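Fold this: Mannose-6-phosphate isomerase
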Amino acid sequence: MGTHPRGDALIRDNRIPQKTLGQWIADNPACLGAKVKDAFQGHLPFLFKVLSVNTALSVQAHPNKELAEKLHAQFPEHYPDANHKPEMAIALTPFEGMCGFRPVEEIVSFLQNVPELRALIGEVAAEQLERSGSDDPRGVSAALRVCFTRLMKSEKKFFVDQLNMLVKRISQEVAEGKDTAGSNGELLLRLHSQYPGDIGCFTIYFLNLVRLEPGEAMFLGANEPHAYLHGDCVEVMACSDNTVRAGLTPKFIDVLTLCEMLNYTPAPSSSKILPVAQSQLDPHVYLYDPPVPDFTVMRIEIPASIKLYLISAMDSASILLVIQGTAVGTSTAAASEMSLHRGSVLFVSANESISLHLSSPDGMLLFRACCLL
């Protein structure tokens, strides 16, 4: 849902001459709101998605603006635009992902419990990480960079052999009823069954496992390594399709660029969860406001007791997505009333409001993506 040239949203109302949202905004740029229009050169700055992750998505990171411009100039077939791509995922069901580097003591513990991992990284690099002290964050990052780069650049035959040995060992331990938590056994076997022989299986020893309950969110800044593993989420990001991949994928992988660009700052998994704030103006609205200007998301929960609800006007274009419930929407900007149900998507111009006449016995859940400058 958005205007990226690779997936410009189609307009379903055939009374509107423009066929896509991008064309309509180009012809009606004031709809973005004055601040957004000026700040983002007449373009909608965000892209809104719903993901249903059944098998893991690739280990990847998104470049910052400077790197995106460089990659796009050099390899436009792999990096289709010059924009950065910070993103935020909000769980609709229990959701699991990997994000950012684990605290060093956790990685060191795996290096000591998983000999196959240690073999890939090599004794020198492993010892360097073990010796790096918490009082020297730059030393820690440098040691972590060496370890992760050695892993990702290890020779295919060597890492496949080590991975097979590891999978065999953990499978035997599981069969014997042993606890495999020290080697992250459950996740390893699951990822290996989805992507056998893939280097991405080893990244579970470096990256935080983040579990979100419905309504919780994680924010992924530029250069933050991550992979979504399982569950449904709504996702919002800057309007870009730039992804540097390194594993758990059959797509183009760019290990060199990835290892160069990553943010090698270890942090606990709890630091990846974005706080959510109830709106001061409307108790039914919860705000997810990440540390970038490109996007904000509102979760709107309307209880069954309310039969008429106003989606308030704001100084930004927004996209409204219905997750549950039904209503009839009316707006001075719309030619006729709109029937809304699970999966309905509305584009709302800046400074326009919508009245919802609810018809479902169990209230409504909506998400609204916008840009609050």
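DSSP finds ten helices and 19 strands in the chain. The mean pLDDT is 96.
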